Amino acid sequence: MTRRPVTSVDVARLAGVSQSAVSRAFSPEASISPAMRARVLEAAATLNYRPSRIPAIMLSGRSLMIGVIVGGLSNPFYASALEQVAVSLQASGFQVLLVHVDDALTLDAALNQLASYRVDAVITALAIGTRDTAEALSALNIPAICFNSRFVGRNISTITSNNRQSGAMAAKIMRECGVRFPVWLAGPARNAASRERRHGFFDALTDHALIDHALIDHALTSDTPSPHPILELQGNDTYESGFNAMRDLLDRNFRPDGLFCSNDLMACGAMDALRDHGGLACPKDVIVIGYDNIPQGAWHAYDLTTFDQRTEKLVDAAMDILNDAFRPGAKALSRKIVVAAALVVRRSTAKAPPQVR
Amino acid sequence: MTRRPVTSVDVARLAGVSQSAVSRAFSPEASISPAMRARVLEAAATLNYRPSRIPAIMLSGRSLMIGVIVGGLSNPFYASALEQVAVSLQASGFQVLLVHVDDALTLDAALNQLASYRVDAVITALAIGTRDTAEALSALNIPAICFNSRFVGRNISTITSNNRQSGAMAAKIMRECGVRFPVWLAGPARNAASRERRHGFFDALTDHALIDHALIDHALTSDTPSPHPILELQGNDTYESGFNAMRDLLDRNFRPDGLFCSNDLMACGAMDALRDHGGLACPKDVIVIGYDNIPQGAWHAYDLTTFDQRTEKLVDAAMDILNDAFRPGAKALSRKIVVAAALVVRRSTAKAPPQVR
User: Fold this and answer.
1) A253-278: pLDDT as tens digits
2) Do A4 and B141 touch (CB under 8 A)?
3) Rounded Cα distance, B210 and B228, in Å
4) What's the ipTM?
5) Which one of A295, A304, A310, B272 has the largest count of C-beta atoms within 10 Å of its C-beta?
6) What is the CATH number of domain A60-161+310-341?
7) Where does the HTH lacI-type domain lie (chains A, B) (predicted)?
8) Would you tell me which residues 233-292 of chain A have a C-beta closer than 8 angstroms to some C-beta of chain B?
9) Which residues make Cβ contacts (< 8 Å) with residue B229, sequence separation at least 6?
C-alpha cells in the first residue's frame, strides 16, 4: 500500500467514471445523476477517500482557515482564550492555523507564512508592539483582530477589556476596605492593558486622596529616596515576578495593606510572598485584587478577587467582526470594541468591617 | 481598495511580465534572468504580494501542514505541550492546523476536516479511546502520532511516559518516608496513563508489603465496608476533583500519611483540602507526589514533588518520527516510544527523618 493519500483520480478509476464526475458527486449543487453519484460515493467509501479543499481554495481564494497568533500559553488566561477561539471558529466552519511567536519581533515573519496559506483572517492575542507591524498586518488585506492592543489601522480591529474602569473599581474596593498603603504591581511596560489598568487605579486613588505620602514616608526605611517606587512594583506578568517583587518590598520592611496586580499570575506569586516571606494573612492584613480570573485564582490557597475579562464576550465580538467582514461587498473594518470586565469577589478582599473613607 | 489578497496576476500586470515569470521569480531553482527577477520582486514589494503555497500543495499533495489535535487546554501540561509542539513544527518549516475536540467521540469528524486540507501528518494529545478511531486514523494514510495512548496501528505511533516505572518510584518514596496509609488518587478510567501509574504504584506497594490492612481497618469508621475504596480515590484530572476526593476522605475521618496523584492538578486540589479541611501539614503529616511538573506545582503554596514527563523529549521523538516518515520511499511507521520521566523532588516529600522499611 502506498503512503500517498487517496485522490479523486483513484476514485474515478475504481468507479469507472471521469475525475470531473467525482468532483461533481461531492458538490451538493452540481449536476449529476443519482446513480452516478451513488457509484462515486461507493468507490470513495471503499478507498476511504476524502475530498480535498485545496482546489476550492485555489479557485475562490477563500481557505476557510483563520490564522491565530499566540505567545505565552503558560499563562492560563491565554490558553483558555485560544481554546475558546478554536471552539468558536470550528463551530462556524473555520479551521485554525496556529502560529506561535515568542514576541512581536517575529510577528512579521509569521504574517508571511499566514499569507502564503491564504488565510481568510488573522486573530492575534499578541499585542501589536509597533506601527510597522500594524502596517504589515493592514497590508495583508484581510481582516485582522487584535486582543488588548492599542494599534488600530485599516483592516485591523481591536477588542479590549475596559481596563481603565476596572482599575478605578479596584481603587474603590481599596477605599471601602480602608487601605492606607496601596501597592500597584504592573505588567511589562509594553503591555498596553497593564498601563490602562494602572491609569484607572492611580487616577481614582488620587481623586479620593487615598495615597497618604506622610504615612508611607514614615513606613519606609532610610535608604529609600521617595515613596513612589514603593507604591508601584514592576513585574513581567509571571508568577515568579509577582513573588519576587513582593518579597523585595517586604525585605525593605514595607508592609502593604492593599495590592492590585495587573494579572492573576502575579497576584498568586505576591500572595505566596506575603504569606511565606512577610507572615501577612490575606485578607486580614492585606487585601489583594488580580485581573483575568484564571482557574488558579479560585484555588483555595488563593481565593482571589479578580476581574473576569469574559473571554466568551471577547470571542463573540471577534466572530461578529469576522461575519461582517466576510459579507459580500463588505469594506475593510477598523472597529474598536470594549468589553466590560466582571468583578469576581472572593475571600482575598473580604476585609471586615469595611472602613469607608 | 478591494478586499481580495494580491495575486500573481496583479504582480504580472504591474511588472509587465507573464504570470509564469512571477511564479519563476519566486522559485529559487527556476530559470529566469536576474533582470526579470528583479522587476518582478520590485512589483511584488510595491503590491505587498506574498506567493501562495496553494498551487504547490495541489501539485505535490504535500501541504507542510500538520494537524494537531488537542482537548482540555485548561490543564497547563497540555497547554505547554501544545506550545512546544508548535514551536518545533514551525522550526522545521511546518504549519500547525489546530483542531480542538471535546472528547474522542468527535475525533472522527475532526479527521475528515484534517484530511480535506491535505495535512501531511496528525499529532494528537488526545488519547485514542476506541479501536474504530484508531482505524479511522490509520485510514488517513498519513503518519499519526499519539501521546499517552495505548492503541497502535498502521501509520500510528505512540509516545508515552514510563508511567509504570514512575508509579513504582512513587511507592519507593512512600517506603523511604515510612508511609503507613498510602492513598492513590486516580485519573478518569479512560486515561491509560493513569491506569499504568496505578499499576506500577500498587505492584510496588504490594511487593514491599507497605499496605497495612489491619491498621487501615482500625482507622476506618464503621460505615466503611472495606479498606479498598479508601486506598484508591477517583478523580477526573481536575483540581476540583482532587480537592473533593480528599475532602470526602477526610470527612470519613481517614488521615492519610502518603498521597500519590495521577496528575499535578489533582495533587494541588488534594493538598488544599489536606490543609484547609483536614488541618494536615505537608510534608510533616502527609507527603504528596504528583505527575506532569506543571508550573503551579512549583508555586510556594504547593512545592510539589512530581514526575516531569520531559515534554521536550516527547516532542523530539515526534519530530524524529515525522522526519523518518517523510523520507522518500518510507514505509508506514508504527513505533512505540517510551520516554523516562524525571523525578523532581520538592518540599512535599521532604519528610525527615526517613524511616526506611
Assistant:
1) 888 999 999 999 999 999 999 999 98
2) yes
3) 14
4) 0.84
5) A304
6) 3.40.50.2300
7) 6-60
8) 239, 243, 268-269, 272-273, 275-276
9) none
